[in-house]
Write a structure and sequence with these properties.
The chain is 28% helix and 42% strand. The chain has 89 residues and is α+β, with helices and mostly antiparallel strands. It has a three-stranded mixed β-sheet with strand order 1-2-3, covered by helices on one side.
Length: 89
């Protein structure tokens, strides 16, 4: 997911170097019918963008999951929630 978002941001000339882009990820594992399963994934992206690019970053973020192979592979099986915190430099 992080790589798909980075690629989409790069298409808009929004840099995602490690000093500007990070993700905090949490997940829940539950016993479902005697089988341990990942049930939820929560991602908090933090992105520092050049001045004037915050709106574009939010626009990209709004649609990147639909193009993410990993997310689309588990959609319906694992609940995914994501948040983007954008700071303009």
């Amino acid at each position: 997911m992080m790589g798909t978002l980075a690629t989409a941001l790069a298409s808009r000339k929004i840099p995602t170097h490690t000093d500007r882009y990070s993700a905090l990820v949490e997940g829940d594992i539950e016993d479902i019918d005697g089988v341990l399963r990942i049930s939820r994934i929560r991602v908090l992206y933090k992105l520092n963008v050049p001045a004037g690019k915050a709106g574009e970053a939010r626009e990209v973020f709004a649609g990147y999951l639909k193009g993410c192979p990993a997310a689309m592979s588990v959609c319906g099986c694992i609940e995914i929630s994501d948040i983007l915190e954008v700071t303009e430099l």
